[in-house]
User: Fold this.
Amino acid sequence: MKTIEDFVDKLIQDKGFKEEDPDVIAQMKQDLLDRVENRINAMILSNIKPEKIEDFKKILDEGTEEQIQEFVKSDVPDIDEKVATELLTFKNIYLG
Assistant:
Protein backbone atom coordinates (compact mmCIF):
# COMPACT_ATOMS: atom_id res chain seq x y z
CA MET A 1 0.00 0.00 0.00
CA LYS A 2 1.79 3.08 -1.27
CA THR A 3 0.03 5.49 1.09
CA ILE A 4 1.34 3.64 4.16
CA GLU A 5 4.84 3.65 2.68
CA ASP A 6 4.63 7.42 2.15
CA PHE A 7 3.39 7.83 5.73
CA VAL A 8 6.37 5.84 7.07
CA ASP A 9 8.85 7.72 4.87
CA LYS A 10 7.50 10.98 6.30
CA LEU A 11 7.79 9.65 9.86
CA ILE A 12 11.44 8.78 9.30
CA GLN A 13 12.05 12.21 7.81
CA ASP A 14 10.19 13.98 10.65
CA LYS A 15 12.18 12.02 13.22
CA GLY A 16 15.31 13.56 11.71
CA PHE A 17 17.12 10.45 10.55
CA LYS A 18 19.62 11.06 7.81
CA GLU A 19 20.06 8.62 4.98
CA GLU A 20 23.73 8.08 5.82
CA ASP A 21 23.25 4.32 6.04
CA PRO A 22 20.64 3.09 3.56
CA ASP A 23 20.56 -0.38 5.14
CA VAL A 24 19.65 1.04 8.55
CA ILE A 25 16.99 3.29 7.04
CA ALA A 26 15.54 0.35 5.04
CA GLN A 27 15.35 -1.77 8.20
CA MET A 28 13.71 1.07 10.14
CA LYS A 29 11.21 1.56 7.33
CA GLN A 30 10.30 -2.14 7.28
CA ASP A 31 9.91 -2.20 11.06
CA LEU A 32 7.65 0.85 11.00
CA LEU A 33 5.61 -0.56 8.11
CA ASP A 34 5.07 -3.78 10.05
CA ARG A 35 4.07 -1.91 13.19
CA VAL A 36 1.64 0.40 11.37
CA GLU A 37 0.06 -2.51 9.47
CA ASN A 38 -0.30 -4.49 12.71
CA ARG A 39 -2.11 -1.57 14.37
CA ILE A 40 -4.47 -1.19 11.41
CA ASN A 41 -5.13 -4.93 11.23
CA ALA A 42 -5.85 -5.07 14.97
CA MET A 43 -8.25 -2.16 14.65
CA ILE A 44 -10.04 -3.86 11.76
CA LEU A 45 -10.39 -7.12 13.66
CA SER A 46 -11.69 -5.36 16.73
CA ASN A 47 -14.38 -3.66 14.63
CA ILE A 48 -15.68 -6.71 12.77
CA LYS A 49 -18.75 -8.24 14.36
CA PRO A 50 -17.93 -11.57 16.03
CA GLU A 51 -20.40 -13.43 13.83
CA LYS A 52 -18.54 -12.15 10.73
CA ILE A 53 -15.02 -13.19 11.80
CA GLU A 54 -15.23 -16.61 10.12
CA ASP A 55 -16.38 -14.99 6.87
CA PHE A 56 -13.48 -12.57 7.11
CA LYS A 57 -10.96 -15.38 7.70
CA LYS A 58 -12.27 -17.18 4.63
CA ILE A 59 -11.88 -14.08 2.48
CA LEU A 60 -8.38 -13.54 3.85
CA ASP A 61 -7.43 -17.10 2.93
CA GLU A 62 -9.17 -17.37 -0.42
CA GLY A 63 -10.09 -13.88 -1.60
CA THR A 64 -8.38 -11.20 -3.58
CA GLU A 65 -7.13 -7.91 -2.20
CA GLU A 66 -10.18 -6.25 -3.72
CA GLN A 67 -12.56 -8.67 -1.98
CA ILE A 68 -10.82 -8.09 1.35
CA GLN A 69 -11.13 -4.32 0.95
CA GLU A 70 -14.80 -4.60 -0.02
CA PHE A 71 -15.53 -6.77 3.02
CA VAL A 72 -13.80 -4.34 5.35
CA LYS A 73 -15.54 -1.31 3.82
CA SER A 74 -18.93 -2.95 4.15
CA ASP A 75 -18.44 -4.38 7.65
CA VAL A 76 -16.35 -1.76 9.45
CA PRO A 77 -18.24 1.52 9.79
CA ASP A 78 -16.16 4.63 9.08
CA ILE A 79 -13.09 2.59 8.14
CA ASP A 80 -11.28 5.54 6.54
CA GLU A 81 -11.67 7.67 9.65
CA LYS A 82 -10.59 4.79 11.89
CA VAL A 83 -7.47 4.18 9.81
CA ALA A 84 -6.67 7.90 9.92
CA THR A 85 -7.05 7.87 13.70
CA GLU A 86 -4.70 4.88 13.99
CA LEU A 87 -2.11 6.61 11.81
CA LEU A 88 -2.34 9.84 13.81
CA THR A 89 -2.04 7.97 17.10
CA PHE A 90 0.98 6.04 15.82
CA LYS A 91 2.61 9.25 14.59
CA ASN A 92 2.10 10.97 17.93
CA ILE A 93 3.57 8.02 19.83
CA TYR A 94 6.53 7.63 17.45
CA LEU A 95 7.44 11.30 17.26
CA GLY A 96 6.38 11.88 20.90
About this structure: The chain has five helices and no strands. The helical segments are 2-15, 22-47, 53-62, 65-75, 79-95.
